[in-house]
Amino acid sequence: MGSYDFPPTPTNEKESLLPWVETPLIYSSPLSRQAGCNIYLKLENLQPSGSFKSRGIGNLMQTSLNPSATSTHFLCSSGGNAGLACATTALSLSSHSSPCHATIVVPTATSPLMIEKLRALSASAVTVIQTGSSWQEADNYLRTNLLAPEAGVEKVYVPPFDHPVIWEGCSSMIDELVKQFPLDKSLDGIVCSVGGGGLVNGICLGVEKNLKKFNGNRPKVLAIETEGADSLYQSVQKGEMVTLDGITSIATSLGARRVSQKTWELANGGYDGFVSATVTDKEAAMGCIKFLDDARILVEVACGATVVTAYNGDLRRHLGGDLSDDEWKGKNIVLVICGGSNVNLDILKGYKSTYGI
Fold it and tell me: pTM of the predicted model, to two decimals?
């Protein structure tokens, strides 16, 4: 705890094929001071693809491999990070099995930086198609035009978030967490960002699987979106599933116009202690900038949405608003640092200028 411990060397063939790694859980003094409680960081930015997507996407792709196939073609629609996870995993699996190719279909809102990173992986193994104004339109293009059977090729559709095997992969984060978290402390809350819902679905699943290890105390789950990409929050407010007309937030990685049915069920009573909330784009950008200063970790705004709750008072307001200062001081909260690759120093400088941060 408190240091960057690398995962152990794989000891068997199945483990060596895992497209994700065990990530550290560290205590953050700077964020704890800001939030007024104990803040722990689950560093999913250290995954091979740069985000938590390596877990769910990797799990789906690995379990979909057909040992008898001559080659496998993975097809993924994505706002960016799921596509990077798919492409990264395809390259990894190719070194352990028959050749794998990945075609990533992204909307026009996907930044040039993300397109560049996708295309830089391997021109021979990764194809990038940019079409449609939203993830849904990109996904419709993929389903309509790219899934036709092809002789000698095993085609596998890889959705970015809405699949039980993806949620199962994301739940491995909680399997790690119960081993890493101090045994003498109670875990009171987990905070994560929400796009389509794959991450939060996996977190809730993981908690339920490991409830005995939490001594029966189910931590609250705070699900954060940015305004303009807040399909879950609007659904909760209206009491029915909402499909956004479009995505207006700068956090394009959260750009699902409609969350998964499972996410809605969890928010609508399926998980006791589920809280849905939003932050502004400016707050999410501020979270990235402050986090870089305090933790020396660079993340995109989709992750900054989670981080900023430790700075702007939202964490206490949503998870401890009725507690005294002394009671809140003893609470233990994990922030899922989901990572994301749509960021560099120039982008952060742009945020500082645009929002006057």
Answer: 0.91
